[in-house]
Design goal:
The complex is a heterodimer of chains A (458) and B (732). Chain A is of the alpha+beta class. Helices cover 36% and strands 16% of the residues of chain A. In chain A, the strands form 2 sheets. In chain A, strands 1, 2, 3, 4, 5, 8, 9, 10, 11 and 12 form a 10-stranded mixed β-sheet that branches. In chain A, strands 6-7 form a two-stranded antiparallel ribbon. Chain A is globular and about 80 Å long. An 8-stranded mixed β-sheet of chain B has the order 13-12-11-14-15-16-17-18, with helices on both faces. In chain B, strands 1-2-3-5-7-10 form a 6-stranded mixed β-sheet, with helices on both faces. A 4-stranded mixed β-sheet of chain B has the order 4-6-8-9. Chain B has 3 domains: 286 residues, 2-enoyl-CoA Hydratase, Chain A, domain 1 (Alpha-Beta Complex), CATH 3.90.226.10; 170 residues, NAD(P)-binding Rossmann-like Domain (Rossmann fold), CATH 3.40.50.720; 209 residues, N-(1-d-carboxylethyl)-l-norvaline Dehydrogenase, domain 2 (Orthogonal Bundle), CATH 1.10.1040.50. Chain B starts with 9 loop residues before the first strand and ends in an 8-residue tail after the last helix. The longest helix of chain B has 21 residues. Classes of the chains: A alpha+beta (458), B alpha/beta (732).
Chain lengths: 458, 732
């Protein structure tokens, strides 16, 4: 058996003097439409559930972990270091330091690569990384004027001063400040940007609807076939046990065609049906040095080999990260597109995925904007997001990265491949009216996994 | 058989049942409604209308950044009589009327400038889609050329945007951005500009605009898109109110009064615009169209229109670099002195992407200067012309410092330190010790000869004058001064930087006061004399503004600064002798001694309160004037005489500058006087004024003054030459 697998396998990507770092396990809570079963929780509750799930799956002693890192986008101000609150609540040793990172939709990618960095630097041997997003409740603030008045009130010494401050409050002071719908630097919402991007690459409404339908259909199939093994069951206090994602809804082209554009009206192409939706959810992965993992008797799921972050113009290219990042990470590893067995790309919008595919297929784009001689090339669709994606499974901004990496590992295992590639574009996470938005992005992250089956099934 | 020449400006193709008509003038950077364009348009429309398969049409320009920039000015200028222009206007009206009454719906797809005749064309169409690009601007700038929208604009706009909106557009001529145009009801739908895709961004944006417009055209043809918009409550209310005759009458009156107040009756175009609109609204379409065409013809023949068109064309010339491409592009600019001027120069430089150092000798100085730059940009943020993010990015180009660090990588240094030759020499030497060999040293002085400053330089070929006008971010003019030793490449660099800063540029020879200050000085000397003769500041201001100066002479002196005026008067007085006399310089000096330095000190000829318009005559200044009182000569002290005393000295000095080769040509002379000193735009500048007023007549007037005041009014030789030979003109 060993022999047969090894003949199938290509070269190893291990590099001299670089530690092998492995993914031991990855789990996530079911991803739910925000405002549904999780609506009364707090963000750290979800993160706690993911951490407890990981503890349960790996049976790792609670004091063996050296460090915990969580990614999140919209922060609950009471638990701004949500990593620490969740870790304590999940029963990890209070001696384990934890910190929280934020990098829009690739926040948990950042958590994972930070973990890789800590291990590679010899600081740690076992790190838990994860991500959480809770859109059922977001911090809504008083207006700046009101905040200023309230803060001055604290300092007011006499009754007269207090009364005069209270008297200065006007109706306008009372209008609340919602988390920004628009990107800070460009004042553009994510959906708006995605619609423009789709138009720039000539992506039609039909193409977008078809891709969204594909995502939902594949997700449904994967769910029904029990392939989504990273999902753990979660007993929500006061509610039932939740054990599967609730946003997967395969529809028909006819029904999707009926929807009106959500952002650019009346001629836009991005609709509620071909965008990812506002989601609550959390994820967690256990990352270790290979040495330590083997010493503890684990069978790691994958090597984490390499990663690249890239940034572009936040106005016109913000969702094009995968196009820029993919060739870079392939070149670093000395691989080509055809070497990759499994692709997992984050699906923020169907239009954004299609635009990236078109950009990767264009010599002109590669020459004009990337300084390349020829096009990047597109991933074959029979290897691409085969178990659904963010459009159908949901997209809790901070948690998606870990889902992508865990899915790659599971798909490599299931499909018998060796190399997998993850790509995600990111933004500063913002909320919009009806549907999702992660807003703007700049950096994209590509993590690299190679399946370790041939080694550990001995 | 006759050969039909191939069409070069207009083409069309059928997309399903939509005729997509594309405009592009291959001979120019912009599309205009030239003879050729109009002829081809008419031809194409004929074919489209006679094709039964066509159910709707889209007009679009394939030229980047331009839909149609307006009518062809040359066409109007070529006309010899107002009747000829009127018939041009009638033809335009008829062409657009056909489009308005088209049997199939026509959609105008607008990207880039849609101005004047271009806008009139667009509003004749049934529907308008525009890109939200910064380059997309709509407007009726005809009034700025002394004309009116002569192809149905005065008739269609009031119906489209309401009477107040139409007056605002046509009387101010201002540019309207796409989002504002949508709010006003000028366009129906907006399309976002696209970023890079599979084609260059703008090319794809135009293609996208076309796709959207074709979709809309189909929608209108099959009644899925409605042309009538549901009116909101406010709209209905406004319509009802506007339906009342007395209300409209009141509006005409208010607008006319306002126009009269602002133009002092010197500009005929606004009056004719009001007339034409009124005729259409009150007496119906046909009367309106006739009034529009007739008034258009009349306006085209006025000297005001010629003057304004001359300024427009001159400005185009002065926005080009006639000295070639500089060997090394200036990327890093250092400015010495963070005062009003220095900070102003910094502001217009950073926002064009120049890395800018602002150096001063004191922390207070740079703090004040940085705040000025910040405020200038932040005001734009408040007006939503800039995002706060863009403001921050722009400000990152600015470095304020006290020392000469990193001057070693500067490409150009502009000094804006105190106007004292010794200080200028000192900084020149300090700077030359630290800058690289290619770096240019520019002096922002308003009167000191550049060759005197360059005398202290080791490399005078790199020394040049760059005279900015205050406030730098508002005043469009930049006067560049070259000495005999200034190299051509240095000039090319200075012009290139000025153009980058958005300036209109004149390049003049070196001499005391160069061109602008030299023209202004005798006029101010005369103004002081007039004040000494007992004409109060208010009356002096009224006399100058009613002649067409935007700012009165007394207010101007306060704005420039009485101390600066005194300084300049003394310096130039020394250089030019009694010819620059008139008023007593001691008047100014005494005022400065008492602290009346003009607006900046709160007191000058006037006392300035907190509000912008809050000013009253300074009684102490009047006391000083009484002390220096002169007897007025009754023979030359009528209002009109006083006006000509002021203006003739200005004009004569300008002509003398041309005679002495300080000026290279009359065009730059006119542009410099109007954009730098506020010479009446309706007169088109001193040279055009001589042409239209008549040199002989001007010389005659000056001789009368000369008899009493002597050489200050002696006409220069060149002016005398023109007086002798009436066929001699400064402008052809």
């Amino acid at each position: 058996k060993v022999l047969s697998i090894q003949t199938k396998s290509k070269k190893t990507l291990a590099r001299p003097n670089v530690k092998n770092i492995v993914l031991v396990e990855g789990v996530r809570t079911p991803f739910l439409l925000s405002g549904t079963t999780y609506s009364d929780l707090m963000p750290h509750d979800l993160a706690r559930a993911a951490l407890q799930g990981l503890l349960h799956r790996t049976a790792i002693p609670k004091d063996v972990v050296d460090y915990i890192i969580y990614g999140t986008v919209i922060q609950e101000v009471k638990t701004s270091n949500v990593a620490r609150e969740a870790a304590l609540g999940a029963g990890f040793s209070d001696k384990i330091p934890s910190h929280t990172v934020t990098m829009a939709c690739i926040s948990s990618n950042q958590a994972m690569t930070s973990a890789v960095g800590l291990i590679a630097a010899g600081q740690c041997d076992a790190v838990v990384a994860g991500g959480v997003e809770f859109m059922s409740d977001v911090p809504i603030r008083h207006s700046r004027k009101m905040r200023k008045t309230m803060l001055s009130l604290n300092k007011a010494k006499t009754l007269g001063q207090r009364l005069s401050l209270l008297g200065s409050i006007r109706l306008a002071h009372l209008s609340p400040e919602l988390p920004a719908v628009a990107e800070f630097s460009t004042s553009e919402t994510m959906g708006h940007s995605a619609d423009r991007l789709a138009a720039a690459f000539g992506v039609s409404r039909v193409e977008q609807d078809e891709f969204a339908l594909r995502s939902h259909s594949l997700a449904k199939k994967a769910q029904d076939a029990g392939l989504l093994q990273d999902v753990i069951s979660f007993k929500v206090p006061g509610r039932d046990i939740v054990s599967q994602d609730n946003g997967i809804r395969p529809s028909s082209m006819e029904q999707m065609a009926k929807l009106k554009p959500a952002f650019i009206k009346p001629h836009g192409t991005v609709t509620a049906a071909n965008s990812s939706f506002l989601t609550d959810g959390a994820s967690a992965v256990l990352i270790m040095s290979e040495e330590k993992a083997l010493a503890m008797g684990y069978k790691p799921k994958a090597y984490l080999r390499d990663f690249v972050y890239v940034s572009q113009d936040p106005k016109d290219q913000l969702l094009l990260g995968p196009t820029y990042g993919t060739p870079k990470v392939l070149e670093r590893a000395g691989l080509t597109m055809s070497d990759i067995d499994v692709f997992e790309f984050h699906e923020a919008f169907a239009g954004q995925i299609m635009a990236n595919l078109k950009a990767m297929d264009s010599d002109w784009f590669a020459q004009t904007y990337m300084g390349r001689k020829s096009k990047v090339g597109t991933p074959p669709m029979d290897k691409f997001n085969l178990w659904g994606g963010s459009l159908s499974l949901g997209h809790p901004f901070g948690a998606t990265g870990c889902r992508l990496v865990t899915t790659v590992a599971h798909r490599l295992q299931k499909e018998g491949g060796q190399y997998g590639l993850v790509a995600a574009c990111a933004a500063g996470g913002q909320v919009s009216d009806t549907h999702v938005q992660h807003s703007l992005v700049v950096p994209a992250m590509i993590a690299f996994c190679t399946y370790a089956k041939h080694l550990y099934e001995l | 058989m006759m050969m039909v020449p191939p069409r070069t400006h207009v083409s069309y193709e059928l997309k399903d049942d939509v005729a997509v008509i594309r405009l592009n003038d291959p001979t120019s950077k912009v599309n205009t409604l030239s003879v050729q364009m109009q002829a081809e348009l008419t031809e194409v429309m004929g074919e489209v209308w006679s094709n039964g398969a066509v159910k709707s049409a889209v007009f679009i320009s394939t030229k980047p950044g331009c839909f149609i920039a307006g009518a062809d000015i040359n066409m109007i200028q070529a006309c010899k009589s107002s009747e000829e222009v009127t018939s041009l206007s009638r033809e335009g009206q008829k062409m657009f009327e056909k489009i308005e009454k088209s049997p199939i719906p026509i959609v105008a797809a607008i990207n880039g400038s849609c101005l004047g005749g271009g806008l009139e064309f667009a509003i004749a169409c049934q529907y308008r889609v525009a890109t939200k690009s910064r380059k997309t601007i709509l407007g009726t700038p005809e009034v700025m050329l002394g004309l009116l929208p002569g192809a149905g604009g005065t008739q269609r706009l009031p119906k489209m945007v309401g009477l107040p909106g139409a007056f605002d557009m046509m009387l101010t001529g201002r540019n309207i951005r796409a989002d504002k145009a949508k709010k006003m009801g000028l366009v129906h739908q907006l399309v976002d500009p696209l970023g890079p895709g599979l084609k260059p961004a703008e090319e794809r944006t135009i293609e996208y605009l076309e796709e959207v417009a074709v979709g809309v055209a189909k929608g209108i043809a099959n009644k899925k898109v409605s042309l009538t918009k549901e009116k909101g409550f406010m709209q209905k209310l406004q319509d009802t109110v506007m339906g009342l005759g007395p209300v409209r009458k009141q509006i005409y009156k208010t607008v006319s009064d306002k126009v009269q107040k602002q133009t002092k009756g010197l500009y005929p175009a606004p009056v004719k615009i009001i007339e034409s609109i009124q005729a259409g609204v009150e007496q119906g379409g046909e009367a309106g169209y006739v009034a529009e065409a007739t008034n258009f013809g009349k306006l085209a023949m006025t000297s005001e229109s010629r003057a304004l068109i001359g300024l427009y064309q001159g400005q185009v010339i002065c926005k080009k670099n006639h000295y070639g491409t500089p060997e090394k592009e200036v990327k890093k600019l250092a400015i010495l002195g963070a005062g009003l001027m220095g900070a102003g120069i910094a502001q217009v430089s950073v926002d064009k992407g120049l890395t800018t150092i602002l150096k001063d000798t004191a922390v207070d100085g740079i703090s004040r200067g940085e705040q000025q730059v910040y405020k200038g940009l932040n005001d734009k943020v408040k007006k939503k012309a800039l995002t706060s993010f863009a403001r921050d990015t722009i400000l990152s180009n600015l470095s304020a410092q006290l020392d000469y660090s990193s001057f070693k990588s500067a490409d150009m240094v502009i000094e804006a330190v105190f106007e004292d030759i010794n200080i200028k020499h000192k900084v020149l030497k300090e700077v030359e010790a630290v800058i690289p060999p290619h770096c240019i040293f520019a002096s922002n002085t308003s009167a000191l000869p550049i060759k005197d400053i360059a005398a202290a330089s080791k490399r005078p070929e790199k020394v040049i004058g760059m005279h900015y006008f205050s406030p730098v971010d508002k005043m469009q003019l930049l006067e560049i001064i070259t000495t005999d030793k200034t190299s051509k490449d240095t000039t090319a660099s200075a012009v290139s930087v000025g153009l980058k800063q958005g300036k209109i540029i004149i390049v003049v020879g070196d001499g005391p006061g160069f061109y602008t200050t030299r023209c202004l000085a005798p006029m101010l000397a005369e103004a002081v004399r007039v004040l000494q003769e007992g004409v109060g500041p208010k009356r002096l201001d009224a006399l100058t503004t009613s002649f067409g100066f935007p700012v009165g002479a007394a207010t101007l002196a306060d704005e420039v600064g009485i101390d600066v005026a005194a300084h300049v008067a003394e310096d130039l007085g020394k250089a030019f002798g009694s010819r620059f006399g008139g008023g007593n310089v001691d008047v100014l000096k005494t005022m400065v001694e008492k602290g009346f330095k003009g607006r900046k000190s709160g007191k000058g000829c006037y006392i300035y309160g907190k509000g912008k318009k809050d000013k009253s005559v300074n009684p102490d200044a009047e006391e000083i004037l009484k002390k220096y009182k002169l007897a007025a000569h009754p023979a030359i002290s009528t209002d009109s005489d006083i006006q000509y005393r002021l203006v003739s000295r200005f004009v004569n000095e300008a002509v003398l500058c041309l005679q002495e080769n300080i000026l290279r040509n009359p065009v730059e002379g006119d542009i410099g006087a109007v954009f730098g000193l506020g010479f009446p735009p309706c007169l088109g500048g001193p040279f055009r004024f001589v042409d239209s007023f008549g040199a002989e007549r001007l010389v005659g007037i000056m001789k009368r003054f000369e008899d009493i005041y002597g050489n200050q009014f002696t006409p220069c030789q060149l002016l005398l030459d023109h007086a002798k030979n009436p066929s001699k003109k400064f402008h052809k």
